[in-house]
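Hey team,

Filing this mostly as a record. A colleague (T.K.) asked me to run one chain through the structure pipeline before their review meeting, and I want the input and output archived in the tracker in case anyone asks later how it was produced. No errors, nothing strange. Just documentation.

Input sequence:
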Amino acid sequence: MRSDHLRGRTGGGSRGRGGTRAVGVGAAVAAAGLTLLVVAGWRPLVAFDRRVVRGMHAHAVAHPSVTHVMRVLTDWFWDPWTMRALVAAACLWLWRRGRGCCAVRIALLTLTASAVQQGLKALVGRERPVWPDPVDSAQYAAYPSGHAMTATVVCGLLLWLVPRGAPRRYAYPARALVAVSVLGVGFTRLYLGVHWPTDVLAGWLLGVALVALGTAVTLGTSVTLRAAAAPGAAVALAAPTAAGGACPGRSPVSPRADFPAR
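Output structure:
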């Protein structure tokens, strides 16, 4: 018989999946509305974008040491390719533990996020902020922010792999790391003057929509697995990959290249 904890992730989790699906739909609708306003060039929104980036750019120019830190964070720690490398490591970890189904689906969700991001950049074609004294540079269209969207998708998927019953010493740091990464990468893009605030907001909304709908629909019913590695190994894998949902139908174990856009 399954434990109460497992039922919370399966039978009782149907309501949770319904709530997750609702969050995904809401985020998608909000992203669609925001996109329409951006394409239409709604003046209050444009004025807000310009006001925010002007203030942050002035601070960046006046504080080069802070700007350097922001560049290191955005170009190395929170770069989209760094995020994708984390997904690749997580997928390999899942595959080697006999959970190739989930590994493939998580990889597909990450690739879908890249495709959606690139497609919207091409369709909207929004120009990035232009400065006489830039502190950083970026290529391709601005909307949506690739950094913000990729970080939201990757961190969201890795956090989803953390079992609900995980020890607090792992779960809390994982959640805090996700929050800092997702919010932090958005801030760095604004501070460096390479995105408008609505670019970052769109990246967040689209990322939430993909993760919520992907985990609720594509990945389907999930059950908690015990960590396949010792606590030390779980820490080495940054906690999010310690354990997570199994693929539907699987019996649970006991309780900078072609896509360089930023």
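Quick notes for T.K.: The CA atoms of residues 118 and 261 lie 8 Å apart. The longest helix spans residues 13-40.
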